[in-house]
Amino acid sequence: MASEFDTSSLGDALVILGAAGIVIPTFARFKINPVIGFILVGIIAGPFGLGQLAVNRELRWLEHFTIQDTEAITPFADFGVILLLFAIGLELSIKRLVAMRRMVFGIGAAEMLGTAAIIGMVLIAFDWPMRSAAALSLALAMSSTAIVLPISGTKSAVGRAALAMLLFEDVALVPMLFIFGSVGGADVAGLTNVMLLGIGVIVVMMVVGRIALPPLFAQAARTKNPEVFLAISLLVVILAASATSAVGLSPILGALVAGLLIAETEYHSEVEVITAPFRGLGLGVFLITVGMRINVVEVLQNWPLLLGGLFGVLIVKAIVTGILLRLAGARRGVAAETGVLMASPSETTLIVLGAAGTAGVLASDTVAFWSAVTALGLSITPFLASLGRLAARRVEKEAATESLEDPAKGRTVIFGFGRVGRMVADMMSEHDRPYLAVDSDIDTCARLRAEGYDILYGDVARAELVDRLGLDKAAALVLTMDDPVLTARLARRVRSQHPDLPIIARARDSVHAAKLYKAGVTDAVPETLESSLQLSEAVLVDIGLAMGPVIASIHEKRSELRAQIMKEGELTHEPSLGKRKPG
């Protein structure tokens, strides 16, 4: 009996490891999110895929390619989600989390409760009992931490908004489960006790962690043994998750706190790198379990109801999330992309459905139906992410049209938004000066607008677009494109129409700078000139020359180049080459 169990477990492990070895490199080669691959593996290798065929005696060999003990891999899937929350904590910090508190308990609470209220009202309109409608609506209002955050990250505007809402949902999961437990006969007063115990445990973890973690990881680092460092990292995660789980809170909350504490130390980067393979594999196991829940035959038999339920949930959640983010001041593209990305149900939806079914709040067939809807929703989340990006691009185009129709007075207009244009925009923002950037790469525009840059899509080679940018009201025009011919042409055209507008242009070298001055720019900054002079200065000083003579020679060389540009550009004054004297 024991040997059979061991053989079965070994077979399941080989299927999972084999799937990871195939899915990750294959999907990376074609630039497809591996989430889809792991879910497909779950569908194929699960009980509703090859598992059904393996029952046939002639096809028993298929057992070697199926996961036979589905319950045995669930703890590994849960551990993958725990490591994911731990990694999120490493990317954050306690200061950053405190700074997000308004978004977590403001937008996060409004999104979850608002979505649940609308879904609940629809269910009540279809004669659902109040209690059942509340349970199902709260379950469906949750979004997937395990899938959404690896797609969105936590540093972009979309990632920060998603993280805030998901953090509130993770916190809200605890009282929800206790409420269902109390309905099923548990002690209602237990909820208060557990919450108080949980707060106490987290406070103790914070205090002990700040004191114990730095010397603990310092000792691990001194061994110069990666295995010791990994063992300490996993031990911290397991202890933190076990501590919160022991008092009735979610273990992922403990993992998040552990990550936050380590993020405050100088060892967080090493911990993040060393635990990444375990996190990726654990998350893959979780996604495989999602695929194993999808009964393809049942989906095909009941596809109108399943798809109707799924699309109803997607539409409500996307609209509510998008509207709330817009009301909170988010850009249109950020609101649209986040709304679509967060629209599908969550892995925690399955937990809440199970708790509600156990408590008798939801019937077993209802739990089974909405579990299938949830599994389908989780499987299409990567497609929703792509759809969200498309939606963001579309609404940003509309926003760009409005920017053209109502140009702001006194803003600086930047043509081209590569590394140079972004640096100019960053410095403008640093000094609270308005700007508008224009770039012809739609992917760049959508991505950077989502990050908070004021950028619109357009081809500045088209005269009609330039005419609509309101350069008559602009403070300055900055030309940063890596196209010498287009830069000179634009400089001539804009100067002829706006003789008093300051035009600052990026030049390749001194020859190009002379041409741009001749075309009418106010300032031309040769990108190779200053870097070459600074490099020469560093070399001369490092090989032992005195600083004074070196600086004098650099100034002399710069003056020679200015004189050369002045002559070639037919200038009546010496060009500044971007250098300004203080004063």
From TrEMBL:
All copies of the RCK N-terminal domain together span: 409-526
Please give the Pfam families that the UniProt record associates with this protein.
Na_H_Exchanger (PF00999), TrkA_N (PF02254)
Q: Where in the cell is it found?
A: Endomembrane system
Spell out the InterPro entries in the cross-references.
Cation/H_exchanger_TM, Na+/solute_symporter_sf, NAD(P)-bd_dom_sf, RCK_N
Q: Which domain of life is it from?
A: Bacteria
Q: Does the UniProt entry include the keyword Nucleus? A: no
Q: How does it sit in the membrane?
A: Multi-pass membrane protein
GO terms of molecular function: antiporter activity
Kindly list the residue ranges recorded as spanning the membrane.
12-28, 35-55, 75-92, 104-126, 163-183, 195-217, 229-262, 305-328, 340-362, 368-387
Keyword annotations for this protein, in alphabetical order, are: Antiport, Ion transport, Membrane, Potassium, Potassium transport, Transmembrane, Transmembrane helix, Transport
Task: Set out the biological process GO terms recorded for this chain's protein.
Answer: potassium ion transport; proton transmembrane transport
Q: Which PANTHER family match?
A: K(+) EFFLUX ANTIPORTER 3, CHLOROPLASTIC (PTHR46157:SF4)
Q: What is this protein called?
A: CPA2 family monovalent cation:H+ antiporter-2
> What are the record's GO terms for cellular component?
endomembrane system; plasma membrane
